[in-house]
Amino acid sequence: MLRRQRAEGRVLVEVERMGARSGIRRLAESGSARLRLPTIREGAPEAVLINTAGGIAGGDRFSTTAVLGAGAELVLTTAAAEKVYRSEGRTSEIATTLSLGPGARVEWLPQETILFDRARLVRSLDVDLDPTAAALLFEATVFGRAAMSEQVREGVFRDRWRVRRGGRLVYADTLQLEGPIAERLARPAVANGRRAWATLLYVAPDAEARLDESREHLAGAASECGASAWMGQLAARWLAPDIATLRRDVARFMTAFRGRPLPRVWYL
Asked: Where do the structural domains in the chain lie, given as residue ranges?
């Protein structure tokens, strides 16, 4: 088999509290990954991840690490939807690691990951929070673009979340789809033919107190969705027939939940 050169990208960003606002203390970039910092006059700084390779193919590897010091804040997002193309056998990896000190707050709000037929992807999210810190975590996944009549018949997708608070594991979620993906998504107990879904997890001291509010924000959504809360965590999930429906419902919820619009790149 012809062995093609693969793309790799790494970003490390460290944020600390600087007086009344948070600022970047250290930024390191390598390979096909870049981080840009639009000017935000109010609120937490926004950091936008860019994949200069223009997509992900079999064997590509990308990692992002963000470290927030005491009281620091950061909104971390992506410049566009991440497209994962057909693989000839090798598996791609996207890894995100977030570490939060006392009183820190992070919002991980990437745009959706779009998988094409026969894509192979392992995605992981590892978060370590101080008990007084807060994290708003989000991921969305789309299996083919309905507007382009695409269908993901086969492939591999593994999605792993691990969240620790004070060093103790408080949330673990692993999804694995392998082989005939379209056939499995068609099953009523899996996705009932839906091809787009999203998960939001809010880990914070006030998470459980916001459950009723969250359910009100979900009311009227076209997606199948719901919210639950337990032990300092709140989770919301959406299941939709296409990305347009999912994005509309997610944007409506997140704008209300956050009390402000999503990062500007979401609307470009």
From this structure: 8-192
